[in-house]
């Protein structure tokens, strides 16, 4: 669950549990911090997840974001253990 952070300095933590039928539970933890002043700023984030053995995805995800008033652009990268690849995720968010 995410909330809208206010103020110059930002710090957000997240803890999520997923229980899927016939699979082991997955725990996801994340932290985000940054500075936003005058509606413009930068944030960095890191996440860690216990994963089921059926995926080669890394347990660690790193990313960041740029805040421009009501518009925010987010980026995240999650490496894969096999073949040295990874997943890049980019998102745009408009906050009314």
Number of DSSP helices? 0
Strand order, sheet with most strands: 1-2-3-4-5-6
Strand residue percentage = over 45%
Percent in helix: under 10%
The largest pleated sheet is described as: 6 strands, antiparallel
Q: Please mark out the parts with pLDDT under 50 across 5 or more consecutive residues, or reply none.
A: none
Number of strands: 6
Q: What Rg, in angstroms, do the CA atoms define?
A: 15 Å
What's the short story on this structure?
This protein has strands at residues 9-18, 26-37, 40-49, 60-68, 71-79, 86-94.
Question: Can you offer a commentary on this structure?
Answer:
This protein is mainly beta and 96 residues long. The protein has no helices and six strands. It has one domain (9-94). The protein has a six-stranded antiparallel β-sheet with strand order 1-2-3-4-5-6, with no helix packed on it. The mean pLDDT is 86.
Features:
single chain; 96 residues; mainly beta; six-stranded antiparallel β-sheet; 6 strands
Summarize the SSE layout with pairings.
Blueprint: E1 9-18, E2 26-37, E3 40-49, E4 60-68, E5 71-79, E6 86-94
Antiparallel strand pairs: 1-2, 2-3, 3-4, 4-5, 5-6
């Amino acid at each position: 669950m995410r909330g809208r952070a206010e103020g110059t300095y930002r710090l957000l933590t997240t803890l999520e549990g997923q229980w899927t039928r016939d699979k082991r539970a997955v725990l996801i933890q994340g932290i985000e911090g940054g500075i936003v002043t005058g509606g413009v700023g930068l944030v960095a984030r890191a996440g860690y997840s216990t994963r089921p053995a059926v995926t080669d995805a890394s347990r660690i995800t790193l990313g960041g974001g740029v805040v421009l008033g009501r518009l925010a652009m987010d980026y995240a990268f999650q490496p894969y253990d096999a073949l040295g690849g990874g997943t890049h995720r980019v998102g745009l968010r408009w906050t009314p």
